Amino acid sequence: MVHPVIKLIAQRIALGLLLLWAVSVLIFVGTLILPGDVAQSILGQAATPETLANLRAELGLDEPPLTRYLSWAGGVLQGDLGTALTNGEDIASAIGKRLGNTLFLAFWAAVVSVPLAIFLGLMAVRYRDRWPDKLISGFTLATISVPEFLLGYIAVYFLAVKWRLLPSLASIYDGMTLGEQLYAISMPVLVLVLTVLGHMMRMTRAAILNVMQSAYIETAELKGLRPINIIAKHAFPNAIAPVINVVMLNMAYLVVGVVVVEVVFVYPGMGQYLVDHVSKRDVPVVQACGLVFAAIYIGLNIVADVVSILANPRLRHPK
Amino acid sequence: MKDNLDLLLDQIDQARLNRRSFLNRSAAFGLTAALGSSVLATGARAQEPKKGGVLKIGLGGGETTDALDPGLSDSPVPFAVNKQWGDTIVNTTADGGLEPRLAESFSSNPEGTVWTFAVRQGVKFHDGTDMTVDDVVATFKRHSDENSKSGAFGIMSGISDIKADGNNVVMTLSTGNADLPYLLSDYHLVVQPKGGMEDPNAAIGTGTYKLVSAEAGVRYVFEKNPADWDATRGHYDGVEILVINDATARTSALQSGQVHLINRIDPKVAKLLGKTPGIQVKNVSGRGHYVFLMHCDKAPFDNKDLRLALKYAINRQEMVDKVLDGFGGIGNDIPINAAYPLFTPQPQTEYDAAKAAEHYKASGHDGSPIVLTVADTAFPGAVDAAALFQQSAQAAGIPLELNRVPDDGYWNDVWNVNPFCASYWGGRPVQDQMWSTAYLSTADWNDTKYFNKDLDALILSARAETDTAKRTELYAQIGAIVHEEGGTICPMFNDFIDAISDTVAGYENDPNYDQMGGYASAKTWFA
To answer: Taking CA B92 as the corner, what is the angle to CA B90 and CA B97, rounded to the nearest 5 degrees?
Structure first.
């Protein structure tokens, strides 16, 4: 008999794939119902009935939608995302580079923010309702409440323009050393950390506080363990499932939701790439970006589910 | 002929002749324009430029979809990129004159139908090959081909034949055009090896700087071309163009010293930015203008009195002050201003509620609302400008109503369709092109639907007129007709606003485009 954990994980992954397929249909249908077709948006004012017909034939837009969907989906399964209509670039390689940049920024933001948020959450519980808790909560709630572009501009004003400590442009390119790249992205990382910190920290605090009501925590206290040990070793492992969920949500946000931060710091990531192509109605690129974003979102949620399952001892050790 | 040149030079000394008329008249004498240009160049350089350093330019108006093919260039970043690595055969100078570049000289027959351009010899492309007359011919042929999708296709379509004759390029036009050299200074028409037929995106040219790396919508890196044919330009070791579309990011990059020059400053912050120590704001009135367009063939705008009523009902000065914050010129309902050669001003129409009311009454309009359609995309501040227009018109008793629509689809569904809407024009290098594009009855973009056979005849005869004085007079007549009867309400001409760091010296205003018409990197230096 298959271990129930493996069965559960397999179920989650299958569900994820099903969801991804549904998303691909949705994206395809969505681009179909947009007013005007691709040929019209490419030709714009230069459109005449003949050039429209020629271009439609060239792009295969005269085929029925189902055929087009199948050939598109077939290409995607083989890693072929097609070519951009606007400049004829291969989408897969263009996205590859942009996605690499986005993941680079998200990775460093996560490396800083996740441990920091959990540490601050633990501290807030340790000094619950005393000044460190209030300071931590107050600060993170303030930074989460300020829109991120404003945080960005405030950071630029002080750190780049007034004091000239950090660069206001975060553009990274080939040939930079890792150190130079980290210096370049320091401000967007700072802003992203401040943006996601509050959510994760509050969730950690709440989840642990919930567990702190349990009888076994009382036992631990009666045993005379130090409060920080109780929180870190006994309460936190049992609070991990909700924490992981909110961490993954924020990671997904770091990847797919940072368009504004990319614009403020001129960072060459996926967001800017997507926005440029949306405004030019470059549908194949928009479809590809949509699919990549959906895959990341779904993937991270599967990870969150799987970790929550693994964190549950009743599922790990079935009778 | 020698005497004629001496006479002209005397007139220059006496400041009786500006550069443009000098060039025109010297060309009329059959002199090479290159000679005239070199005569003028001496003494114009008071400061001695320093060499070295890497100029960093932060530009708005670039996208990840941009190609390197100069034919496809349609926004500030590709424009600037092409100016770094490429040259055209002629340039339009800051004072509206012509400067021969890869053509050493040019001349035409008296009718302006056959033009001969002598191609400069000894110029090398960045790949080391010689630039020849065949490359120039192939370049023009490529842009003449509809399939190239070149932005200069419209310009080239008037040229019926392009051929090489020794070291000359000979162009034959279907109808005479005295402005051809101006048209060929178009930024799309960069001379490429074999015309760029093999690889239009190679970015190999004869320009000041060689392309080292390009990432569309992000960053372009150039190094000095050591074999540059023009030793007077190119003072930097290299140039870096960073694409910064966010206006605030652009200004803060300049303020924090990460770039030395930025373009497209929002008029609303230009004054504040100018007060920052170490930063200078450079604005120059260009040919771009903002307009409210009435379709002269549709009610109620088919009534001349109603059109005049609306022209008197708009407060142009207020718009320049409030919408452009003073960074612009006042419009006068024609698309031409002093930035154009051969410009004759028309009497300025002022805001006059009494006259507006008078014409409104004379039009016999039934009093139903006159609807002006507007969206933010029409021009920066369009919605505010329309609201100001509404206020001033209501003061004159004209029931102007605003219909605010979304940006999406504005250029397809509203502009050139709706009988009264807001729009903008980028301007053209010469009057003929502006009038021909938007005021000929047959023009696709006749966006005021003003059909006047007399006006058409005037535009066409001005195009072929090679006598400057007669031509100026014809353009004055055209201006007078459109000013009085046309459907364009033009409240303002917008400025190009750049900002530079104090470390950059030698910056001069150029009404052709921002960044000194694209030549900032070639002509400035680090102080």
So the answer is: 110
DSSP B242-286: EE--SHHHHHHHHHTTS-SEE----HHHHHHHHHSTTEEEEEEEE
Contact A169 B246 (CB under 8 A): no
**Distance between start and end Cα atoms, chain A:** 13
- Residue of B66, B215, B259 with shortest CB distance to A173: B215
Kindly give the pairing relationship between strand B103-108 and strand B328-330: unpaired
DSSP classification of residue A160: I
Query: pLDDT digit string (tens) for B165-194?
Result: 999 999 999 888 989 999 999 999 999 999
Q: What is the largest CA-CA distance in chain B?
A: 72
Check A169 against B258: CB less than 8 A apart: yes
| C-alpha separations of B358 from A73, B68, B116, B365, B503 in Å | 67, 55, 55, 12, 56
- Of A197, A203, A198, the closest CA to residue A113 belongs to A197
pLDDT at B35: 42
- Out of A1-5, A288-292, B283-287, B345-349, which region has the weakest mean confidence (pLDDT)? A1-5
- pTM score: 0.81
Token readout for A109 is: 């933001």
Question: How many A×B Cβ pairs under 8 Å?
Answer: 85
| pLDDT on residue B415 | 87
Q: Are B495 and B324 in contact (CB under 8 A)?
A: yes
What pLDDT is stored for residue A318 in this prediction? 67
- Contacts B242 to A, Cβ<8 Å: 169, 171, 266
Report whether pLDDT(B229) > 60: yes
Is there a contact between B58 and A169 if contact means CB atoms under 8 Å apart?
Answer: yes
Residues of A in contact with B244 (CB under 8 A): 169, 266
**Is B64–A272 a contact, with Cβ atoms under 8 angstroms apart?**
yes
CB of A123 closer than 8 Å to CB of A136: yes
Highest mean pLDDT among A235-239, B43-47, B115-119 belongs to B115-119
Query: Could you tell me if B169 and B136 are in contact, meaning their C-beta atoms sit under 8 angstroms apart?
Result: yes
pLDDT at residue A48 is higher than 70: no
Q: Which residues of B touch A157 (CB under 8 A)?
A: 252
Q: Do A164 and B65 touch (CB under 8 A)?
A: no
3-state DSSP assignment of residue A76: helix
ipTM of the complex: 0.78
Model pLDDT, residue B94: 87
In angstroms, the CA B321 to CA B316 distance is: 9
Give contacts of A173 with chain B, Cβ < 8 Å: 213, 215, 218-219
Question: Do the chains contact at B63 and A173, CB–CB below 8 Å?
Answer: no
SS (H, E, C) B305-352: HHHHHHHHCCCHHHHHHHCCCCCEEECCCCCCCCCCCCCCCCCCCCCC
DSSP summary character for residue A156: I
CB–CB of B217 and A273 under 8 A? yes
A54 to chain B, any CB pair closer than 8 A? The answer is no
Return the H-helix or E-strand segment holding A208.
helix A186-212
Q: Which residue has the tokens 């910064």?
A: B244
Residues of B in contact with A167 (CB under 8 A): 256, 258
Q: Is A205 on the interface with B (CB under 8 A)?
A: no
| Per-residue tokens: B278 | 């170490």
Q: Which tokens in the block code for residue A204?
A: 């950690």
